[in-house]
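Researcher: I'd like a candidate sequence for this fold, 459 residues long. If you have to choose between options at a position, lean toward the conservative one.
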């Protein structure tokens, strides 16, 4: 591989450029009209415009991206996360054009990116799944019968869903029969695929996921991350390792992830997501993300590997450069997602121009972001500006370090989620690790004043 085109934007584009440069690979950054002044465009060796701001006409336009690769002579494409990263047709088109796709094959994405199909693969590999339907729902009445057997509440999920979207909860058969068709037509509109399936709702579960890397033959895991702090089923705060697991469960969880990835000859970086019931010690597979994830840095901080560089090397034909014994986890890492949103105002998106910017620094601190003073955050995309990641010897020290780093961070001109994290650091439950996926939302309602007060002391 000699020239890598980045088919993405924002902080992940910056992250991929850095990894490529560390590997001595030249970079091409594509950009929409809205991103011509982005940090990734400023950093890349070459840049090329791929269309107007609307993602459908730029970052999601397969033809435009392939043409950009041809015009610049790139021989590989990194899809980042979101956009086309889990689009099997895109992976196929890249391969058909004679280029390297930095990720698994289109066939693997088809198998594991379809959430209903992936459940079947997990079952085959003896990985426990959430009780639910076998594959997508055909007949609604049949599905309602199954939901009765499973017991309400049940979750209705889009097979092609992601980013917390396309999920509904039904509390009764009546609700199920009215929500399911609605969910299906919404999934069709949002993901181009109306397939839905059902799962039992696991109450008070924790979200725990395992990072894997495969080279098509061997698979190595990089331990787990916990992402239980969620709003609208989107992660806002992630940690590694999880504070909920004992060594026995941890070993079983990581082994099951490796078994599943091996069973599909997984090639590239991937994440196997689970729900974990810390009362019973049971875990259940929910999905696999066949790409690099937003929260990969917490794993890099505890394991000491550059996962993005490794996935690029594997795509370029390298075998895994590490064996499982080389991957030790050390200390504790926490990541918080800095979004251009006002946490005191129902997380209203807050595009605007960055004023003064002070980035946190010092021992154990990493700030992966796309900001610079004067940068105008465009209103067209995801509100993620960057991620603040801290590492320390243990969780208590990491919490202290997060407080210190947030104190150093100053982003003028925008509302951000910084005050949310300052307020969260005062939560006894969170400090004690007593959280689950439905913990954050009620906490937000009960702590609005605390967030407002933090916001006030920042401005
Ligand atoms: P992560 O675990 O990496 O946070 P998410 O599922 O939250 O994964 O997705 C990361 C990014 O990808 C987010 O910006 C999200 O909005 C986007 N995304 C995920 N799945 C899809 C999808 N099917 N279609 C469009 N965007 C998606
Ligand atoms: P996405 O593809 O949007 O990331 P996931 O299937 O990974 O969707 O689920 C996102 C989140 O929704 C999980 O992290 C969890 O908080 C919640 N969730 C998903 N499935 C269940 C379930 N069966 N029971 C309870 N919560 C669930
Ligand atoms: Mg998920």
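Model: Candidate sequence:
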């Amino acid at each position: 591989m000699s020239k890598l085109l980045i088919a993405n934007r924002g902080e992940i584009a910056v992250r991929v450029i850095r990894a490529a440069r560390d590997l001595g690979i030249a970079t091409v950054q594509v950009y929409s009209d809205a991103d011509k002044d982005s940090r990734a465009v400023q950093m890349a060796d070459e840049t090329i415009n791929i269309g107007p701001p609307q993602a459908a006409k730029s970052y999601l336009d397969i033809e435009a991206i392939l043409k950009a690769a041809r015009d610049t002579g790139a021989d590989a494409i990194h899809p980042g996360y979101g956009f086309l990263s889990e689009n099997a047709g895109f992976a196929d088109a890249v391969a058909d054009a004679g280029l390297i796709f930095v990720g698994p094959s289109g066939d693997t994405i088809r198998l594991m990116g379809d959430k209903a199909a992936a459940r079947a693969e997990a079952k085959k590999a003896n990985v426990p799944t959430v009780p639910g339907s076998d594959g997508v729902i055909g007949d609604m009445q049949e599905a309602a019968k199954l939901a009765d057997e499973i017991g309400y509440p049940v979750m209705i999920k889009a097979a092609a869903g992601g980013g917390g979207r396309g999920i509904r909860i039904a509390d009764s058969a009546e609700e199920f029969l009215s929500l399911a068709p609605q969910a299906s037509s919404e999934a069709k509109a949002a993901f181009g695929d109306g397939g839905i399936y059902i799962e039992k709702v696991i109450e008070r579960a924790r979200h725990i996921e395992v990072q894997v890397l495969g080279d098509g033959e061997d698979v190595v895991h990089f331990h787990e991350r916990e992402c239980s702090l969620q709003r609208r089923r989107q992660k806002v705060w992630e940690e590694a390792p999880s504070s909920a697991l004992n060594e026995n469960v941890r070993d079983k969880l990581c082994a099951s992830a490796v078994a599943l990835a091996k069973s599909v000859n997984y090639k590239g970086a991937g994440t196997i997501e689970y729900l974990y019931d810390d009362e019973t010690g049971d875990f259940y597979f929910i999905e696999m993300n066949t790409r690099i994830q937003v929260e990969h840095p917490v794993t890099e901080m505890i394991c000491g590997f550059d996962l993005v560089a490794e996935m690029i090397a594997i795509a370029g034909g390298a075998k895994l450069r590490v064996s499982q014994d080389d991957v030790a986890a050390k200390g504790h890492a926490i990541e918080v997602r800095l979004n251009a949103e006002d946490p005191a105002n129902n997380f209203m998106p807050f595009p605007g121009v960055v004023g003064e910017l002070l980035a946190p620094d010092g021992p154990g601190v990493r700030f992966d972001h796309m900001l610079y003073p004067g940068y105008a955050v465009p209103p067209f995309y995801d509100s993620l500006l960057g991620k603040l990641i801290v590492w320390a010897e243990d969780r208590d020290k990491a919490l202290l370090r997060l407080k210190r780093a947030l104190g150093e961070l100053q982003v003028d001109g925008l509302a951000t989620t910084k005050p949310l994290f300052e307020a969260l650091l005062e939560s006894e439950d969170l400090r004690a690790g007593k959280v689950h996926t439905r913990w954050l939302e009620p906490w937000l309602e009960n702590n609005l004043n605390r967030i407002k007060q933090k916001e006030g002391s920042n401005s």
